[in-house]
Amino acid sequence: MVVPGEVTASGNLMPGDNTIRIDGSIVATRVGILRRGPDSMSVIPLRGFYVPRVDDLVIGVVCDVSYNMWKVDINCPYYGILPATDVFGRRFDPTKDDPLRKFDIGTVLRAKITAFDRSQDPLLTIREQGLGKVDFGFLVKVNPSKIARVIGRGGSMLSKIQQASNTRVVVGQNGLVLLATEEPVMRDKLIKALKLIEEEAHTYGLTEKVIELISSKVEE
Amino acid sequence: MSEERKKLIDEKGERADGRKPDELRPIRIQLGYLKHADGSVLYEQGKCKILAAVFGPSEVHPKHLELPDRAILRARYHMAPFSVEERKSPAPSRREIELSMVIRNALEPIVITELFPRTVVGIFIEVLQADGGTRVAGLTAAALALADAGIPLRGLVAGCAAGKADGQMILDLDDVEDKEGEADMPVAYVPTMNKISLLQMDGIMTRDEFKQGVSMAINGSMKIYAMQVGALKSKYRLPEDLER
User: Fold this and answer.
1) For chain B, what percentages of helix, strand and coil (3-state, to nearest 5) are there?
2) Which residues of chain B lie closer than 8 angstroms to A119, CB-CB?
3) Is pLDDT at B95 greater than 80 in this prediction?
4) I want to staple B57 with a disulfide (CB 3.0 to 4.6 A). Which of A77, A167, B144, B147 is the partner?
5) Domains of chain B, earliest start first
């Protein structure tokens, strides 16, 4: 466990995620857990915001439409850009195709990040299986640094949640979680379960607690 | 100054509140104090109570203020109307605007702003109760709130004032010592970079006293820094198996 400014290593190791090199030593830049790789030192953050990464699956809400692209709020410092050519294809013609009629403001999208380099907003695509408009379910926000715990090691937590609730749960790397149910009792239980994971991400036996919460009968 | 004035340091070398000349006031840190801010802290140093909250990084408005190569910092130091003996107007005073700038400048070297260009990080420092040394206490609190928000930092900054009262050098001045004493010098120090990020002075000191004051303030800051680290570690402590 390290805090910003703490020296984690010195010598020939490379600074990995959330670390920098200051005067020959590798220094943590965020509160988190130290991880040593074969030739690098990195920090897994315990607090923080979502920083886009190429190939991340995210869930976003369309917040602006222009003639050739959509701006998508993906819960990070930058807007995701979904170009119209991605949806209509190369032959996209602004005089014939109207982006607004395809996805209006407020549309929930599952998308994948195809490019991001901080000097430009992250580029999104929906041209893959399972991506595109979401028209069913309920969105929940979870702290992005806790998303790894929601998924669990090798997806264990997520698959157990889905089994116990018999509901499809889609997790966006950006901290938005989609519950594919409109059934209020199960929805409320799942929201409670997600909040429990968020608050007690660091405790033992969390999976059991979560499953218990989901399988519990609602008292009348 | 009248001769009747109460002595700031008595014959035994103790200060008005019973501290030794180089003793800090008791410090309390409550991280994550606010629910809706991305990062927050309630910081108490003696009678000083300071609330710091951080938002961001987020989009810059108005757009023309954004920088293509780094994030901008916005700091607001504000004293609540009830923070001082006589009601203070809630409008930002000249002093508060200046201190906001001073605090922003002191934080800029520690925040790795190059990592998220075209964004803004908002830092809000609310003095709930003032008793001397609020700018450095605010800065210490702001560093904690930034770490709590998960903003990448080169290190934490800790601040502490040194000064002179009744001809003697003292550490961490309270309001009376600040007003009645001969000199007051707030210092903020970044231990991991071994750099001073804020140094101001008001009053008269000799060159040697100044040197002594700076080293006293750095020592005080180191003690506060240890408490910052302790607070962050105890808040986010993990079970052993995840620590591997």
Assistant:
1) 30, 30, 40
2) 68, 117
3) yes
4) A77
5) 27-232 (3.30.230.70)
